[in-house]
Amino acid sequence: xxDFSLEKEMRSSGHRLVAGIDEAGxxxxxxxxxxxAVILPEDFHHPWVNDSKKLSESRREKVYEDLIADERVIxxxxxxxxxxxxxxxxxxxxxxxxRRAVEALSVTPDVALVDGRPVxxxxxxxxxxxxxxxxxxxIAAASIIAKVERDRxxxxxxxxxxxxxxxxxxxxGTKVHLEGLRxxxxxxxxxxxxxxxxxxxGAVQ
Length: 205
Prior knowledge:
By secondary structure, the protein is an alpha/beta fold. Helices cover 44% and strands 15% of the residues.
């Protein structure tokens, strides 16, 4: 389970406000990539805060509601749309979403712990942490917020584009999604630069 070890290490070196940053949605064929930045109070505790991928959808939603209801938790999220992914590639779009999340915080952290590798252009001092969502409580909280926000966006898109089943797979390349692509071609939120989408577009044309 993630804990506060990395946050305590940062604070011991003089950094008072430590943010955790993580993303959701790098792999899907459709929809935005989202990111969240979270600053937890030093005495924060929640029995279910963990890497979002290890939680069921219902439990993620519950933890998300608990996080945003806690007035001591400082958080924000950002996104990069599918068309931005196509324009600048998924890695750069992920960086954009992370920068937007940090810039949306009500306070500027002294340092950030980022899941994965360091981020180009992040407007705060930061440290990349491989598998950080399994190590850092702040990153794990960010992973939950980023994932829930993205899932809600995809459920809303499922109403607008019901033929793809976005409410089930959230844009990932499942069998149902690929069948929808083959039958109907891409819609406005598909990532045209991703190979399965490009192939479906050519097939439908």
